[in-house]
Amino acid sequence: xxxxxxxxxxxxxxxxxxxxxxxxxxxxxxxxxxxxxxxxxxxxxxxxxxxxxxxxxxxxxxxxxxxxxxxxxxxxxxxxxxxxxxxxxxxxxxxxxxxxxxxxxxxxxxxxxxxxxxxxxxxxxxxxxxxxxxxxxxxxxxxxxxxxxxxxxxxxxxxxxxxxxxxxxxxxxxxxxxxxxxxxxxxxxxxxxxxxxxxxxxxxxxxxxxxxxxxxxxxxxxxxxxxxxxxxxxxxxxxxxxxxxxxxxxxxxxxxxxxxxxxxxxxxxxxxxxxxxxxxxxxxxxxxxxxxxxxxxxxxxxxxxxxxxxxxxxxxxxxxxxxxxxxxxxxxxxxxxxxxxxxxxxxxxxxxxxxxx
Length: 357
Description:
The chain is α+β, with helices and mostly antiparallel strands. The chain has 2 domains: 4-30 and 46-184, Nuclear Transport Factor 2, Chain: A, CATH 3.10.450.50; 223-355, Nuclear Transport Factor 2, Chain: A (Roll), CATH 3.10.450.50. Helices cover 27% and strands 31% of the residues. The chain has helices at residues 4-10, 56-61, 71-84, 87-91, 105-111, 167-172, 232-244, 250-253, 267-282, 334-340, 343-355, and strands at residues 31-36, 39-55, 117-126, 129-137, 142-152, 155-158, 193-200, 203-207, 216-220, 222-224, 285-293, 297-305, 312-321, 324-328. It is elongated and about 75 Å long.
């Protein structure tokens, strides 16, 4: 699963459009995360600021005294202390999450030996968290890094307390202002369903209405179903119901795409399969609601219940081949999987469909 942490460390960033930090202006600009048939079906957005050729010397010129007064000053001090192997100095830059065992003075100085400058690239903001993307710069190359910073009252502190599963971090990992050689594509989200995630007091909330405070957004291009109109997806759901209730246990397994049958030998996939089978066996009312088109088929969201019961929401993965569907046990694309299987995004989608009833 691509995390903001791993992406920031591993990948270089190429930026061509910048903004000056002296006149900070954060912006929102949706970017594609996953495309099917050339069309964006998942897009993201978050509160973003991009620097205009801002280097160590530019920070130095500002003549600051308190490194905690600005996120950029904190990054400057961190770079200086890392080069010097000054762990005591680094500890003063952190909040209470600092652990001396996480730092090796010799390793830090060796790592930064050839780097003599830092180039600030971009930063992302959510609640009290700021993530600054910057590069270590040498005469021959650049090495990407990042800093996770918390704002406590009016001061900034480095922190190791970061929930990589939060939408802010997951979506941030796909931002064109973070990734290497990712094109700055524009996305029209007018016909997509928006999910806005807000962080407040270390809790994540979501809304389908545009919030007033800074947010992280996920946009999904749903294809909605009308139960009165027959579709291949609705027909396949009826086929699954029939197979799940068959006295012949092989009927349900026959619905799985052939190349994934070996996955049933692994507990994770067999448990997933059994949960699907249980739903289609136990519940008499199963109604497809919407789908997200993938390059393999579709992610189908449906409602299930018995007569007189409150319905629940679930999803299945469909693989398409020669105009026919089969049941898939996993999403094969990492980007698609990392967004749709994210616990916050998944719960937001299910809540959205529950409220549409």
